[in-house]
Amino acid sequence: MGEPRQGDGGWTVTEVRLISEIEVELVRAMASDEAVAEAARVSTAKDRAATGRPVQGLIGALMRERHGSPFEHGMFTFRVHAPIFVFREWMRHRAGWSYNEQSGRYTEFEPVFYVPAPGRPLVQQGKAMDYDLRPGSDGQYVTAQMDLEDGCREAYERYRRMLGEGIAREVARMVLPVSTYSTMYATCNPRSLMHFLSLRTREDDAAYPSKPQVEIEWAARQCEKVLEDSMPVTYAAWHANGRVAP
Amino acid sequence: MGEPRQGDGGWTVTEVRLISEIEVELVRAMASDEAVAEAARVSTAKDRAATGRPVQGLIGALMRERHGSPFEHGMFTFRVHAPIFVFREWMRHRAGWSYNEQSGRYTEFEPVFYVPAPGRPLVQQGKAMDYDLRPGSDGQYVTAQMDLEDGCREAYERYRRMLGEGIAREVARMVLPVSTYSTMYATCNPRSLMHFLSLRTREDDAAYPSKPQVEIEWAARQCEKVLEDSMPVTYAAWHANGRVAP
Amino acid sequence: MGEPRQGDGGWTVTEVRLISEIEVELVRAMASDEAVAEAARVSTAKDRAATGRPVQGLIGALMRERHGSPFEHGMFTFRVHAPIFVFREWMRHRAGWSYNEQSGRYTEFEPVFYVPAPGRPLVQQGKAMDYDLRPGSDGQYVTAQMDLEDGCREAYERYRRMLGEGIAREVARMVLPVSTYSTMYATCNPRSLMHFLSLRTREDDAAYPSKPQVEIEWAARQCEKVLEDSMPVTYAAWHANGRVAP
Amino acid sequence: MGEPRQGDGGWTVTEVRLISEIEVELVRAMASDEAVAEAARVSTAKDRAATGRPVQGLIGALMRERHGSPFEHGMFTFRVHAPIFVFREWMRHRAGWSYNEQSGRYTEFEPVFYVPAPGRPLVQQGKAMDYDLRPGSDGQYVTAQMDLEDGCREAYERYRRMLGEGIAREVARMVLPVSTYSTMYATCNPRSLMHFLSLRTREDDAAYPSKPQVEIEWAARQCEKVLEDSMPVTYAAWHANGRVAP
């Protein structure tokens, strides 16, 4: 894949892979409701074992009153395979997030690009900063698919040609579109994850509703599932309190 | 510019602008050597006016011993016009940096793209993570210029065509290359600026030499000039101490 | 003040100053509603001058949808004179805050201490993490005043005696109570200030009500006044949106 | 302990515990040299398994060139038992650190206080911001021990008396000295730990030597041991590169 081959008419043809998925894989985690309670109890009890108050009540109170720090003593590392435009949004999250992304200077990108699947809403309606999207017509899907696919293929061919001429990766990559897939390691703590989720998921009953682009929301939903599985009490309390990070 | 016009053969032709500059404009600043000394003296003197120790000696000692916090009580806001691949590197700086960048969801990109000027080194030599660049041959420059220019033009035409078909900006922009120019406001403090400069400029006599890509270094050098002009004592002390942020 | 003098019985007597105020002085600021709008417009408009949307509507929308970053391009530097127990709470705010506090290693503390004024609620009622305070009886005020005043005086005498014996400041200060006044420079941006205010002021109509200790709330209220004066539109929008930082 | 008892002369006597240790206990960790390499390889290799370059060389290069981000994908949680003046220094570390400390509002402090052990240097020599300490005379040790011990006992008696009178914990605690022991949970990542260590340990061969107070250095040395044990390659590379955090 990605290797040019001799085409019928004597042209080299690059095969590119067009996909519509965002992959989020949990690499490792150390996070639990118990760790939240344990850290919170440092503030309130002499003895670590002395509980009295059940975890559920304690975590609910912390969330309600926005005592955020007990939710920071944990960690999730995700491996994310997504197009560059998703990483551009993700990396705006600074506090409590750490990133390592594939470098366009040190590596050669593979010919993998994002195209919207047929189900992805395509047409904008509403004002510039407050718009919604609705499905496109069949014609619009064809246009988008063709333009994106042809654009990616041509860009990748140019990329490969420049590399073939000995031009540095850091220059050749300038031609690649923001739909090019890249890979990153992203590490966060439960609190910074909840903050990310509050801005990158769309829920009508959120206290402060957000309108993220769907591609980053797909990624966020996968992270949300990890949070729910590993910290069910925290997750439920966060959701019940308007999905605002404590 | 950017508007399609009727070409000779009946085709619409988009004119794109290809430039090789990174623009950094200082929007506003509140930062001075005196403010550093003033903050440091809170630690050491009862009276704000009581100085005794001249600013130069004080700042030199702070830098040498890496007392960093007095260098945080200031602010610089820059307006930066640069290609997306530069912003991707810049925004990895999280602590003490704030960003607002042009949104591809809320605005339409202009047809302005980066191409390397003839002087820009083009050919990689050395290992993957420790390479240097040397100038390219005439042929390599022609290849790079043509591929980048044609790639940008075609991508922008596709972008415009999708927009013309009613496809949402957040989808159409996926075809645009990372050489597309965007604009951001970036705000930092003197300490976070020094940290940025230490990693994004190349100086052989730095204590920990870095090898940034030249485009972000051009931007960093403009920021460095602002630091030097507004905080000459701090700047000199930072440089004299191996360009490691305190 | 603070100098020991010869007492009646041949003892040295230290005069200490007991006060009940927290002083917050604005040292300098560069922050405005216009700067928020200007930064936000980078995201949405090609031209900085092109406004259309009035500042009020724009800032209201940013606040409602928790677009926080445009509120970071500003700065406030406060000089705060407060007891150590207030600084201990304040410095838990990490993101967007910079601090320089008087050092007990580099300086000698003055004999200034905090005592609750008669109006300060004194008696706890309710559960450990959810208690309220009500005024104390006259007897309780006398007890508190006497114990705090005598405790401070004795501690300061010990401090001075140790210093007089040549013992290092960093050791002698260990005896000083957390009611000892210290001074700090604290710098923040409008967003981090709003976050601080949301946790350190008590308002029943806040979306997530907090119960700060009154001493830090007094400080916070002075900061809040500065925010209101310098950024009235931002302030009003923040308050109207439940006093949750965007 | 801490409970008043009937003394000989009819007075109640509080027994206080005076100790000279700082305890640092590793609660949990998820950190390894392999995780650093794994994150770094995202930048440089397509395949996670594809190593080629041994971990040691890779980590050495990252450290030398200050590629800091791969060192952030790990976590250490420490439980620290230390006097308040140590926590005051520790909590100035903001980036990559999370804290939960015992609350003087929610809990009652135990009568445990710090006093310098005989070996602890006691006398300051040199300039205000550049001083060293040398051992004290026997007389100085007696003075310091007596003043600190008596000061702590009297302060704790006042504290207990106020609590006994029904005065709120948040008021009564104002009389307690900064030598009072408290407990915290502190979580950091390997990079933020190295930064802490660079400022809180004293090594003559460090590139930027620091002069921390010995009590926080004792704590830091225990953290350093944890780093060395869990990430030996990272630790050695950091030390070899002047103990400057990457």
What is the fold's blueprint, element by element?
The structure is a homotetramer of 246-residue chains.
Chain A: E1 5-6, E2 12-13, E3 17-19, E4 23-30, H1 33-44, H2 55-64, E5 75-83, H3 84-90, E6 97-101, E7 112-114, E8 123-127, E9 130-134, H4 138-164, H5 169-172, E10 181-188, H6 190-200, H7 214-230, H8 232-240
Parallel strand pairs in A: 3-7
Antiparallel strand pairs in A: 1-2, 4-5, 5-10, 6-10, 8-9
Helix pairs in contact in A: 1-2, 2-8, 6-7, 7-8
Key features of this structure:
homotetramer, 246 residues, 8 helices, globular
Number of strands of chain A: 10
Q: Architecture of chain A, CATH level 2? A: 2-Layer Sandwich
In quaternary terms, these chains amount to: homotetramer
> Most extensive interface: pair and counts?
A-B, 58 and 58 residues
Radius of gyration of chain A: 22 Å
Q: What structural class do the secondary elements of chain A suggest? A: alpha+beta
**What gross morphology of chain A would you assign?**
globular
Looking at the structure, the CATH topology of chain A is Gyrase A, domain 2
In total, how many domains does the architecture of chain A comprise? 1
For the record, the CATH class of chain A is Alpha Beta
Beta content of chain A: 15-25%
Report the order of strands and helices of chain A: EEEEHHEHEEEEHHEHHH
Q: Helical amount among residues of chain A, as a percent range?
A: 25-40%
Give the count of helical stretches of chain A.
Answer: 8
What is the terminal-to-terminal distance of chain A?
A: 46 Å
